[in-house]
Amino acid sequence: MRDYIEAMLSSGQMQIVNKEVDPQFELAAVTARAQGESRRPILFNNVKGSSLPVVSNIFGDRDRLCDMIGAPRGQFCQHWAELLKGSGGELVVVPEADGEFYEARVADLPHITYHEKDAGPYITAGIFLANDPDTGVPNLSFHRGMHISDEEIRVRLGTTHDLTRYQARAEAKDQP
Questions:
Q1: CA atoms within 13 A on the CB side of 132
Q2: What is the DSSP string of 51-103?
Q3: Distance, CA of 159 to CA of 142 (rounded, Å)
Q4: Which of 96, 126, 143, 150 is the most exposed, having the fewest neighbouring CB atoms within 10 Å of its CB?
Q5: Rounded CA gap, 80 and 160, in Å?
Q6: 104-101-95-11 Cα dihedral, nearest 10 degrees
Q7: From CA 176, how far away is CA 168, in angstroms rounded?
Q8: Cβ-Cβ contacts under 8 Å for 104 (sequence gap 6 or more)
Q9: Residue 124: its pLDDT value, please?
């Protein structure tokens, strides 16, 4: 993802906002307005209250999704399925790089409030990993998560989501 973002920056395909933006409503408003004018993603370099930047709208265009995985236009799903078939499930370990990684807490991430009736700020498009309590098979899913503490993020589970079924089976077994 980092390489893809750097390529978009170097080719001028990403909008850049260096002015400080407030994560409470302002960042979302700028994103919404920009999405009305363009499908280009936006890099916010200066988010109030956080030392970390925010990239918005990176997955907001079907052609861009195809570019990310090397798929022909209009064939994202087919190409993705082919990539998954050939993955073999190998775990890729990224080698440590001096100064490239640092330890962070969930509280360090920018938390954005999009709507005035939101219960609080959220991490949008967070990727959650859960293992099926019966088989151990992992499942990744995107959710909007409300930060409660570094140990707790609250997620609304839809009735048809795999994560909902995993939770119900885990609770029936008295597992976390």
A1: 8
A2: SS-EEESTT--HHHHHHHHTPPTT-HHHHHHHHHHT-TTPPPPPPP-TTT---
A3: 15
A4: 96
A5: 23
A6: 120
A7: 10
A8: 52
A9: 82
Q: Quote the distance between the C-alpha of residue 121 and its chain's center.
A: 15
**What is the torsional sign of CA 105, 106, 112, 118?**
negative
**Side chain identity at residue 65, one-letter code:** L
Summarize pLDDT for 142-157 with one digit per residue, the tens. 888 998 998 899 988 8
**Contact by Cβ (8 Å): 26, 39:** no
Residues 100-127 have pLDDT tens digits of: 677 778 888 898 999 999 998 988 878 8
Residue whose entry in the numeric block shows the structure tokens 């909008």: 15
Contact (CB, 8 A) for 146 and 157: no
- 67-86: average pLDDT: 88
Report whether pLDDT(55) > 70.
yes
Which amino acid is located at 51 in the chain?
A: S
